[in-house]
């Protein structure tokens, strides 16, 4: 299966997916990486791996729908079967999401349905949560609301800061995202649409 990844920044989850997909028995190949920020470090990493890259700034388009139409055209020019959101920091419109329904997944740094949206680590700490974690889920029009595929938990430790907690969660993100894509691309899971 052919996979496109959408990023906005660092791209460490993208790198984890690229690394996993290099295994000969992995059922997916990363064929393109699209960023909405030209300065995203992940674009450089992807290019170093010989993967096609594209950068599209939403501000250059008259509307979000037109921006998202060009994203879909770009992904379709790469002939992708699936789309992975990996730190893509734009809320996607319903038309784009519905176009890719059942074929687009996201990694979110919380144990959904807890802490949808931003600043998840600080919010978990502020609540005194004993555990925290991450979720790979199907993308649906409601933000961070699609069906979960895999989750991983980590303990919240005394003295944690948002950064220390984020780092502990990120290790798990890099483990479960490639595993979730493997399940999807090998046909072992599907969205109920
Ligand atoms: C990750 O924490 C991911 O869960 C969230 O944004 C961050 C992206 O990091 N959606 P990276 O770009 O994959 O390093």
From TrEMBL:
Listed pathway(s): Purine metabolism; IMP biosynthesis via de novo pathway; N(2)-formyl-N(1)-(5-phospho-D-ribosyl)glycinamide from N(1)-(5-phospho-D-ribosyl)glycinamide (10-formyl THF route): step 1/1
Amino-acid positions noted as binding (6R)-10-formyltetrahydrofolate in the UniProt annotation, renumbered to this chain: 64, 89-92, 106
Keywords: Purine biosynthesis, Transferase
Site (Raises pKa of active site His): 144
Occurrences of domain Formyl transferase N-terminal (ranges): 1-181
One GO location term (cellular component): cytosol
Active site (record annotation): 108 (proton donor)
EC numbers: 2.1.2.2
Organism superkingdom: Bacteria
GO molecular function, one term: phosphoribosylglycinamide formyltransferase activity
Catalytically driven reaction(s): N(1)-(5-phospho-beta-D-ribosyl)glycinamide + (6R)-10-formyltetrahydrofolate = N(2)-formyl-N(1)-(5-phospho-beta-D-ribosyl)glycinamide + (6S)-5,6,7,8-tetrahydrofolate + H(+)
InterPro entries named among the record's database cross-references: Formyl_transf_N, Formyl_transf_N_sf, GART
Residues annotated as binding N(1)-(5-phospho-beta-D-ribosyl)glycinamide: 11-13
GO BP of this protein: 'de novo' IMP biosynthetic process
PANTHER family xref list: PHOSPHORIBOSYLGLYCINAMIDE FORMYLTRANSFERASE
Function: Catalyzes the transfer of a formyl group from 10-formyltetrahydrofolate to 5-phospho-ribosyl-glycinamide (GAR), producing 5-phospho-ribosyl-N-formylglycinamide (FGAR) and tetrahydrofolate.
Protein family according to the UniProt entry: Belongs to the GART family.
Entries under HAMAP family matching the protein: PurN (MF_01930)
Name of this chain's protein: Phosphoribosylglycinamide formyltransferase
Organism, scientific name: Devosia litorisediminis
Organism phylogeny: Bacteria, Pseudomonadati, Pseudomonadota, Alphaproteobacteria, Hyphomicrobiales
